[in-house]
Amino acid sequence: MKIFTKSKTALAVLTAKKTKPESLAVLSFSVGEIDTQQRERVQLLPDGYFSAKDGRPEDVHNGKWLMDEQAFANLKANANQRTNDFLFDYEHQTMNSEENGKEAPAAGWFKDFDYVPGEGLFATHVDWTPPATARLKNKEYRYTSAVFSYDPDTGRPIALMHAALTNDPALDGMKAIVALKAKSNLTTTNPSGEEPMNKALEILLGLLGVAQDGEDLTNAVALKAAEERASVAIAALKTKANRTGTLETELSTAQASVVALKAKGGEHDPSKFVPIETYNAVNTQLAALKNGTDENSVEQLLKENAAKITGQADRDYLESVGKSQGAVALKAMLEPRIAIAALTNTQTKGKEKPDGNGEELTTEQIAVCKTMNITQAQFKAQLTKGSI
Q1: pTM (2 decimals)?
Q2: DSSP bridge partners of 48
Q3: What are the extents of the domains in the chain?
């Protein structure tokens, strides 16, 4: 571990609003093994009071730094003022490049961090570069080193600057990244390297009949697709289960009916049933009776409304309507018609038909002439020909 005293130039951005002097600390601790398929949470600082193995910090009265809620609030307030991601480099080369002239490549990046009481400060969703991933996997690097400013009066961290991969740790007992993975992802790894939760899902998919050969359930896309297929299959099973309950109820009702019928000896009451032949015969008779009734009704209507019928052609038409559409339809056609008064009585009143030789017409015949808009002579001529 190294402790740096910041120059006024270096402190200007971070301490513009500070009234107390600050110091800079660099801490290192183990990161353990890394899973190349995951973006891990990495512990940056332990919780509570802590110090380096060599006794630092020397400028804090009790020789301890303090990570707590207040320290986290300080760190978040300063983090919210920056736009760039936080950096992981190698051996703090970012701080040494001006002196040694060497490049300072990034090992990883992260945007945020969180605080877990009782555990400490963690970088979240660290995006390691491929070279760093390989080095961590091969254990070429096993520790991280955080760089932060702090208040020498309280020992609380004020601003996180960056972190580095290193093999020179300052603290013992920090959480390894594999243990953090087990907590954050809620999965565990068995000695063979298989994840039991994924294995259980594979077995479930097989039981549901929706498993796919060679499916990689460690892949996020494939895992999501498998979960959706499982949800659909389970919903279908639930529907079938609900239908089974309904069928059981219907079967119970049917069985109860059979039992009741057997209790009566399987007999039925003849007074409540008729043979199908009798039923069909009655229907035939009713149809014939209805047809005859309709015909009688049509004739009766034509007779009763004779004064509303203007001739044989009109009568034939009305009769055809009655036979095809029924007496009700015929009655509806006849009701609005106006009866011709001259047609309601016998035109000659029992007398012989006039011979047209000048006999006077009756009052009714004269009314007919007026209605038909013809002269009495024309009417007499028609009487002579027998047309009226």
Answers
A1: 0.41
A2: 67
A3: 2-185, 273-339, 344-388
